[in-house]
Specification:
Elements lengths: L1 H9 L15 H11 L6 H13 L1 H22 L5 E9 L14 E12 L4 H67 L5 H32 L11 H8 L2 H15 L3 H4 L1 H21 L5 E12 L10 E10 L3 H72 L5 H35 L13
Helix pairs in contact: 1-5, 2-8, 4-5, 5-6, 5-7, 5-10, 5-12, 6-12, 8-12, 10-11, 11-12
């Protein structure tokens, strides 16, 4: 009995740091006080996220795509059609008996011609604007990929932490259930209990062993999943990962405080909405560019021909110069260009509808995540301040009455299991709360470490 009393007496409630907003702000205030006091430091986590967004292959892929888009935009902003140089040799002998030839002299020589294409004014500018919008879209995709990778990493961290804490909770209750089972067997051996109580205590102990086995596998699986976010053979050990996951509360508290102070608007801060608007604008430029096929393009040319003398002809060679302008008449292309313009118009309208839908969906998801966050925060407060303390008090009371023989072991085991289920459910609610907060931060583009640029 002494070992049982010592185990129960030494068990301390797990420290809970709540991140509560909206209608339940007490937990948030407590968490911010602890974070400001230095008990929750997220410097290591912030540095890990910064390194992750520099070396992760998906981010590097988007960065290379951005570099390509910037080069394309630079090229389109300075490109102009190249001139064409033509050289031709002419040898046109004459026949004196053809009266239609006014010049009866032979004409032979070399002609040089220089031609410069001139697109209709505005066509090249439209192409350059499309390339610029493509670069802007690539920049947004890079920022969106960073947010996505960070969000996935944080979710994996809190899942790993939840599995680790659930495992520790199950191991703690497993140890206590073993003490209860030993006590029940000892009481039964001296005739103070019954066999049913012993078998029930053994059953509960086996159930905790099964939970421990399951949670160990769950924790290990999340640890393997976290390896994806670290370089090969550089994944931190379990203890380091657990310490890193415990910094998430401080990291989220700082970002949540920044988001609350900024009073952000989902429609103007969402990267998905911003990307949709850029794509809509680029499709509109494509539509304008298609309309240029109704308009002509031009060419200016200049030629110089030197006429030489033929052998035996006394006429001296003469030089000829010519200048002119040619115009492409959009006759046949204009007849079918309406289909191209109509296609671009449909695409632009589709993009506009998509942006409206994306805006509504992002606002709805943000509102739903905020509601989940506030509800989970309030539930955590109720669990920590009311349900769990009362369950512990009930357990302690039944423990005392069981030791004095005033209650049966079944009552003690029942409240013991209820207390475990309450603490386990509280861990699950904390996970749900943090998931909702991460979702909100990702939607409004505030999930990266504080101080990094936020491009809408």
């Amino acid at each position: 009995m002494k070992s049982q009393r010592a185990l129960w007496a030494n068990r301390k409630p797990r420290t809970e740091l709540s991140l509560i907003g909206g209608r339940a702000s007490v937990g948030l205030c407590v968490l911010l006080m602890l974070w400001n006091a230095g008990e929750l430091q997220a410097d290591g986590l912030a540095e890990t996220i910064q390194q992750l967004n520099q070396r992760h292959p998906r981010v590097q892929e988007r960065a290379l795509q951005l570099a390509a888009s910037l080069d394309e935009a630079s090229y389109r902003g300075s490109v102009y059609p190249d001139p064409m140089l033509g050289i031709s040799f002419r040898n046109l002998p004459y026949k004196r008996n053809l009266p239609i030839i006014l010049d009866q002299e032979p004409m032979t020589g070399i002609e040089y011609m220089l031609t410069q294409p001139i697109p209709f004014p505005g066509r090249l500018s439209a192409e350059a604007e499309i390339a610029d919008l493509g670069a802007r879209a690539s920049r947004l995709r890079l920022a969106l990929e960073k947010n996505t990778v960070t969000r996935e990493f944080l979710l994996a961290l809190i899942e790993f932490r939840n599995a680790s804490e659930s495992l520790a909770l199950a191991e703690n209750y497993g140890d206590q259930s073993r003490v209860v089972a030993d006590t029940a067997r000892a009481r039964y051996s001296v005739g103070r209990g019954n066999l049913a109580g012993v078998t029930r205590a053994n059953l509960d102990q086996d159930r905790y062993n099964e939970r421990i086995e399951r949670l160990q596998g769950l924790r290990d699986s999340w640890q393997r999943r976290l390896e994806y976010y670290f370089p090969e053979n550089e994944t931190p050990p379990t203890d380091s990962l657990l310490a890193l996951s415990r910094e998430v509360d401080g990291y989220l508290a700082e970002l949540w405080r920044e988001m609350q102070a900024a009073e952000l608007n989902v429609a103007t801060e969402s990267l998905l909405v911003a990307l949709g608007r850029v794509e809509t604008e680029r499709t509109g430029r494509d539509e304008s560019l298609a309309r240029y096929d109704y308009l002509p393009d031009f060419q200016v040319f200049a030629s110089y021909m030197r006429r030489d003398r033929l052998r035996g002809d006394r006429t001296t060679g003469e030089d000829f110069y010519s200048f002119g302008l040619t115009m492409r008449v959009p006759l046949w292309s204009a007849l079918s260009n309406s289909d191209q313009v109509e296609s671009r118009t449909h695409l632009r309208r589709a993009e506009e509808v998509g942006v409206a839908d994306m805006t509504s969906r992002e606002q709805s998801e943000f509102a739903a995540a905020r509601e989940r966050f506030q509800t989970a925060s309030e539930r955590v407060r109720l669990f920590r301040e009311s349900l769990i303390p009362r369950a512990r008090l009930t357990r302690d009371s039944l423990r005392t009455t069981y030791e004095t023989g005033e209650s049966e072991i079944f009552d003690l085991l029942q409240v013991w299991n209820e207390l475990y289920m309450l603490e386990s459910e509280c861990l699950a609610i904390e996970l749900e709360r943090n998931e909702a907060l991460i979702t909100m931060l990702a939607i409004v583009n505030r999930i990266l470490p504080a101080g990094e640029g936020h491009e809408p």
